[in-house]
Structures are given as C-alpha cells and as structure tokens.
Amino acid sequence: MIELIFKLLLFYILSLAYFYSVTGYGKLISNKNSNFFELQLDGTIVLLLIGYIFYLSIGINGLLNCIIVFFGFILFFFHKKKNVIVKFNYILLLFILLFSVLLISKTHEDFNSYHLFSISELFNNSLRIGISKLNMYYMHSSHLTLNQALTVFPYLNFKIIHLPIFIIYLSVLGYFLKVAFSNNLRTNELFFSIFCIFILLVKFNRLSEFGYDYISQFILLVIFHKIYFLNFNKYELRKSILYFFLCVLIKPVSLLFSPILLFIFYKNGFNFFKKISFSKYILICLLLLTLISSSFTKTGCIFYPINSSCFSKEQIFWSEKGSLKSYSRIVELWAKSYDAQIKSKNKKIEDANLYLQKFNWLKFWIEHHFFYKIFEFLLITLTTILLIYFYFVKLKENVDEQNKDKNVMLFLSTLSILFWLNTVPQFRFGFTSILIFMFIFFSIFLNLNINFNKKKIIHILIFGLLILNIKNFSRINNEFSRNDFYKFTNFPFYNEKKIINDYSKLKKSKFFHIEILK
After folding, report:
1. Is the peptide bond before 492 cis (omega within 30 degrees of 0)?
2. Are residues 50 and 153 part of one domain?
3. Residues near 349 by Cβ (< 8 Å), separated by ≥ 6?
4. Which residues have CB under 8 Å from 259's CB, separation 6+?
5. What pTM was estimated for this model as a whole?
6. Do 399 and 473 sit in the same domain of this protein?
C-alpha cells in the first residue's frame, strides 16, 4: 500500500511539474493578457516544434527530455513576461479534481497498434525517410506524438506519455473556467463557457477514449470562442489561426472545421492577414513547414490527405500515392458504416462503389452510427442547454443586435457538418461543429439574457465534477477486477505493451544521419 501511494504521489507531482514546464514554454509566444490556460496550448506548439527539430537532427532521448522539461520549468518562474497567473492553490485543486481522468489501465483500441507504435519510432530513431513503408500507420501519425516522445524519461520509460493529451484537456477546461468566472461578460458568452465546461466534464471524461481526434476537437472549441465572441480583438483572431494550424497538425481532419473560420473574414474582411504580426507569421510558417516536410518524408506527398499532392513512385521511390488512395477509400467505407451492413435490417449493398453513390450509405450509417453515437450526444447537449437555461434566472429579453451574426454562424456550422457528413461522418471527427450548431440554433430561439449567479455556476461545476469522478472511479475499480491484459497491475500507470519492429530492410545513408527505406 505504501508503494502504491508513493507511485500515485509521484505521478501527481510529475504531472504538475510537466504542466508548469509546458506553461513556461507557452510564455515565450504568449501575450501578457492571455488567458492563463492558453499558455499550455502555446507551450504545446513550442514543444512540438522543438521535438521535430530534434527528430530531424540528433534524435530524442531520455536525458534530453529531462533537460527540456527542466528548462521549461525554469522559464515559467524566471521569464520576465508577466502573464495573468492563476494561483497555485487553484491549479492544485483542479489537478486533484481531474486526476482520475489520467489514471487508466485500458487504453483505447488504436493505442498499442498505432499511437505507441508511432511514439516509439520517434523516440528510438532520428529521421528516416519512407518510414510509412514499414507500417501504414506511419502515414497519418499525429504530430502530437512528438510531444509525447518528449515525455519518455529514464526509469519511467513510456509510462507518462498520456500527459500531453491530459494537459490539453485540462487547459481547455481551465480556459472556459477562467472565462466563466471573469467579470463583465456578455451573457451568451458566459452561457457558452458553462455549456462547454459541463459537456467536457460529463461526456468527455475518459482519457482512454480520447486518442488524437477528440483532443483536436477540444481546441476547436477555444478557436470558436475566439472568433465568435472575441472577434473585435485582432490578437485573439491571430491566435485562433495559430491554434487551427495546431489542430491540423494533431489531426488533419480538423480541416472540416474550415467553414466556421470564414466568420473571421465576414467580420474583418479579407485584409485580415495583413494585420497578423511577424512573429505569428513565423510560427504559422514553421507549423506549415513541419506539416509539409513530415508528410513528404513519410509518404512522398506534400500533404498526404490530398492524393493529388503525392509524387509518383517513378519520381520518388518512397511514394505511397497508390497506398494512400486505397487507404482513404477504406477509411471512407468504414466511416460510412459499410462493414456494419452485417448487423443491418436493410438489404446489403455488396458493391462498394454503389454503396458510396447517391447517399446509399446513409440509412446504414443512421442505423449503426447515428443512433449509437450521435443521438446520445445530441440528447446530452440538449439536456445541458435546457439545464443551464432553466436553472438560472432569466432577465427581460433585450433586442439582440447579433441575430445576423448568429444566422451567418448557423450557416457556416451547417456547412461544416455537411462537409463532415460527406467525407468521414464519425462522431469523433465532427462533434465540435455539431455542438456549435446546437448552441447557435438554440441561442436564436431562447432568451440568453440570464442572471448568471456565481454560486449556481459552482453548483453546475460540482455536479459535472461528481459525474466525472464517479464514472472514472467506477472504471478504475472495474480495471482492477479485469482478468485480461488491461487489468490494473501497474497502478497508477497504464499497462505498457512492448513493440518489436523489424528494421532489417533499412539501410543507413553514408552522407546523412537518416535512414532510407529502399
């Protein structure tokens, strides 16, 4: 028992130290008036770029990781930029209340075959051109694996690699908490912040289910807040563009959110980009360069999701143009529930081409995925809106001067949903657009001129935290009772699975510190 408590305390302290280290790096690119919990997103960008530079050059190793984390910790305390800092006691409390999210034994289904595989590759090797030839999963591995590779330390090995994902979840929650307890907010902005907090606590509280899809979608909520509620602030709009590039690096499917970004041009015109500061241009260019160079070295494509950007095998021998086209087809069929026809009451369509034509897939998708995943989310979202609406005292309705803005955003969010529906209509890839649509739709018809009593906000927060912790403690108890590989035998750390790769086909270049697959 003493050893267990010691390991739990060690994990908690390491998590807290990593949080402040990431925050320290965030101070390098943040504004002094930034929401404190933006610093972790800023720090994620900086660490992603640092990780990629080391991967391209000397490689990533445990000792280097210790130095990087320590330097970030020093930056937090000694960097001269005076950001608005949240008291240590509040951070301590927030960590305690959310820490059960981080205690997992069973990871999600893709973790051992995809995520851990990719992190291991980054940690154990410097740049190797054509790595996607070893395993198709390397084609679309998230760039957040770079941040995770930086959390592999001596003795701990891969035990705490979920921290970068957890920190993003915590920082998005903290971002909206900071907004919710700010003064002089518009009531619809406060409503949206409480709405996001409750949804994140009640619906998205199992780290084992997150993967990279959910994490990028969480950041998109912050982007929406900036472009819709803070569109008068040019700095916030520039930051939203930077965060959008981060989302695309984490998961390229975030591009389906693009129609909602058009709201920036609706409010500010097409001269907006002229107002972006030089430092933001540099950061955006670095992220774009990271995206392109990583895609090219892995797959021979400028941007692998777009097949026309791929070079042929005759031009570049490691090109995966044919494989990517086949893989994108497989993903589309999976997303549109082609294999789920086995369980369907409808007549099966064996021909894949016919299945994808004229929305023939829609009835199977509705039967298998909509009622299994999306309908539940719609109910939770609707319940949350009504809970907030009826729990607080409504004031006399004012004439809303923003109806035009709401109509525009309703159209753009609908467009984003249609893009999602027509490409990869899986819940994990588009729930942010759905959530935004629901909020805007009901804000048009409901009186959001509400007296938000702070005590009642705390009541809703406590209710959400209770649900989160009850669900997670129940899950942890079940994981102790399992009799398979995912039984909690390494508490508080997840069960690691050894990865064995066959690199016999790789040859080292005599001229570059890289390995080229031929």
Report:
1. yes
2. yes
3. 341, 355, 360, 361
4. 412, 413, 415, 416, 419
5. 0.92
6. no
Per-residue CA distances from 98 to 62, 283, 470, 499 (Å) = 27, 31, 11, 30
Q: Which two tokens stand for residue 304?
A: 């692998």
Residue 373 makes CB contacts below 8 A (sequence gap 6+) with 426, 427
Instruction: Kindly give, in sequence order, each residue whose CB lies less than 8 Å from that of residue 88, ignoring residues fewer than 6 positions away.
Output: none
- Taking Cα atoms as reference points, which of 99, 135, 71 lies closest to residue 15? 99
Q: How confident is the model at residue 72 (pLDDT cuts 50, 70, 90)?
A: very high
How many residues are listed for the chain in this entry? 518
The two tokens of residue 26 are 């965030």
Q: How many CB atoms lie within 10 A of CB 48?
A: 23
Say if CB 266 and CB 290 are below 8 A apart.
no
210 in a structural domain:
no
Backbone angles phi, psi at 247, to 5 degrees: -60, -40
| Look-up of token digits 């930056």 | 75
Residue 514 has which token pair?
A: 């890289």
Residues 6+ apart with CB under 8 A from 181: 454, 457
Alpha helices by DSSP H, 257-343 = 258-268, 278-299, 321-335
465: amino acid identity, one letter: L
Q: Environment class of residue 512 by beta-carbon count within 10 Å: exposed (0-12), middle (13-18) or buried (19+)?
A: exposed
Residue 401: strand, helix, or coil:
coil
Number of domains in the chain: 2
Q: Which of 83-92, 224-233, 292-301, 463-472 has the lowest mean pLDDT?
A: 83-92
**Whole-angstrom Cα distance, residue 32 to residue 140?**
36
Number of helical H runs and strand E runs in the chain: 19, 5
Asked if residue 58 and residue 132 are part of one domain, the reply reads: yes
Q: Give the range of the structural domain holding residue 68, as residue numbers without chain letter.
A: 1-174+465-496
More confident residue, 140 or 96: 96
Same domain, 442 and 491: no
* Selection from 220, 191, 215 nearest residue 204 by Cα: 215
Please tell me the distance from the alpha carbon of residue 45 to that of residue 33, in angstroms, as a whole number.
19
HSE at residue 47, side-chain half, CA atoms within 13 A, is 36
Q: CA torsion angle for 214, 374, 479, 207 (degrees, to 10)?
A: 10
pLDDT in tens, 226-280: 999 988 888 888 899 999 999 999 999 999 999 999 998 888 876 666 666 667 7
What the block records as the tokens of 163 is 């921290």
Query: pLDDT tens digits, residue range 401-427?
Result: 567 889 999 999 999 999 999 999 999
Determine the 3-state secondary structure of 301 from DSSP: strand
Position 183 in a domain: no
Give me the residues paired with residue 128 across strands: 515
- Please identify which residue in the block is written with the tokens 């937090």: 76
